[in-house]
Amino acid sequence: MGEIIKVGIADLKVCRAPDQITTIGLGSCVGIVLYNTLNDICGLVHIMLPSSKGIKNNENRAKFADTGIEDLIHALERMGVMRQALIAKIAGGATMFQFTGKSDMGSIGDRNVIAVKEVLKAYGIRIVSEDTGADYGRTIVFDPVSKKLLIRSAGKAEKSI
Asked: Which amino acids are annotated catalytic?
């Protein structure tokens, strides 16, 4: 087994087997794993917000669904992965805090999941499995050999999607 590549909040990285890739602290954030079935290369972006539109001088493109996913696709292409072959697994997007009163904003977690799905659809990338929503945080680990996404949450059984 190789090493485990750690992806921080508002960060993205790519890896090649035998390494695995992980991120912790997915509350309302969403972790997007992109990979294909042709090789053992994958990438992970940990996004915090749905859109970079309206943000002046965006210093951190990985923070947003639109720019983070775009940059991850380009990073994988630089490693020789064809965009047309990419598929996705996503996790996170929880509602971590309950607000009183009516808000038309909706949960940031819900908005993140919707934005991620829209961006992936625009790139023609199919989501093959997801573990999103609910009210708890997640830590995820992806193995580019087995193509399994391991999900750990406090007080919950570990699962693999």
From this structure: 29
Nearest-CA neighbor of 91 among 2, 8, 154, 160? 160
Distance, first Cα to last Cα, the chain: 20
Cα–Cα dist 38/56, whole Å: 38
| pTM of the predicted structure, to 2 decimals | 0.94
**Which element (helix H / strand E) includes 113?**
helix 108-122
- β-sheet with 138-143: strand ranges across: 4-6, 20-26, 138-143, 148-152, 159-160
Cα dihedral sign, 33-34-37-38: negative
| pLDDT (tens digit per residue) in 10-57 | 999 999 999 999 999 899 999 999 999 999 999 999 999 999 998 887
What is the structure's pLDDT at 102? 52
Q: Please answer whether residues 40 and 144 qualify as being in contact, where contact means their C-beta atoms are separated by less than 8 angstroms.
A: yes
